[in-house]
Request: fold
Amino acid sequence: MRMYDLITKKKHGETLTKEEIEFIVDGFTNEQIPDYQMSAFLMSVYFKGMSLQETIDLTMAMVHSGDELDLSPIEGKKADKHSTGGVGDKTSLIIGPMVAALGVPVAKMSGRGLGHTGGTIDKLESFPGFSVSLSEQQFFDNINRMKLAIIGQTANLAPADKKIYALRDVTATVDNYSLIASSIMSKKIAAGSDVIVLDVKCGSGAFMKTIDEAVELAKIMVNIGHGVGRTTYAVLSDMSQPLGNYVGNALEVKEAIEALKGNGPKDLMDSCMTLASYMLLGVGRAASVQEAEDLLESTIKDGSALNKLAEFVEAQGGDASYVWHPEKFPKTVFCEEIISAEDGYVSEILTDEIGITSLLLGGGRETKESEIDLSVGIRIRKKVGSYVRKGESLARLHANDLDKLRAAKPRLLNAYHFSETRIEEPKHVLGIVTKDGVTLF
Ligand code: URA
Reply:
């Protein structure tokens, strides 16, 4: 086989075989195929597309390029969730304990945040001592004992995806459905869970700007999952504003603790309930969404989900007293209200700008090596649909450095857009994609 011929084949819109796709992925990962040929191939995929079978073959070739977690030592069907990236997204911190409290094993491999979206591990490290460096045996033992554990993503999980993504990023070939879907699904499949629930975000702050685009991506990912024997659902959710009312590591953990006490904001809870319900449906713990929601609500009412969070934090070396005394999380030196200069209905809050505001305050990583300040962040006071009067506060910034606070203020103001006419509060959960079809709400 020659890479030249395979590029030509795709350039003419022909379908590649499994062996040809494996040749490309293995050759590129082993550095036998140079960047320039892989770039030409990616651009031909961008213009000519890939069939579902080609996309499945690409996904599995990337899965086999590195470690695949064998979760068979864990009893029962395992459920996982994945979000396509959001600002203020602390759903894993709420869903993990709720689902685990119902006896369903959640074996999660999570990432750190890079750029303006936060990572679950960074948030969890707000608990002093918390660590994701568990051995594989500890990971299995913790899940068998208490149904929930989180480890960091191993360097060797789908290494082909890492290499291909880096090239896509500099060759303008990121935004192709097959390439995005195979990239996301390769990591989820290699992480080993039986049930995968995807949170596909849609809106100004997301990869997918419109609902049609989000549906298209979701359908491909659900089909890939089922095509390789994993029960997969995709929840379509709105990203025209940050999720919940807080952005920033410790602030989000505190919001998650409040949510587990029954005091979570509606958009955050709708999202968590829907994602967690499909995890329960997928593993067979509930027979309907209604039954799943009732079960999940019971874990909040009887305190079992909050207890589970504390048990999980302690099992991974963290100080669980913070769960019971969230006032112990460090506070920032400065807090400043950001005042609206106009009257009007909030029509949009650009999530990217909010993410960048948090980054500028020191809450995110500019590079992999950056240290992050866990205490800084934003309290969102006005969400889309709220009426704001001139002089009212839109948000509160929590900062430890006056220069960073000064730099962050205009970004926050820039994130807010207003309308003179009334704006409806947006629905947060927009639809569900299963192997049987698409339901939009
Ligand atoms: N996230 C991924 O992991 N891969 C993509 O291609 C896009 C988003």
Summary: The mean pLDDT is 95. The pocket of uracil is lined by residues 165, 174, 179-180, 183-184, 207 (CB under 6 Å). The longest helix spans residues 266-283. The radius of gyration is 22 Å.
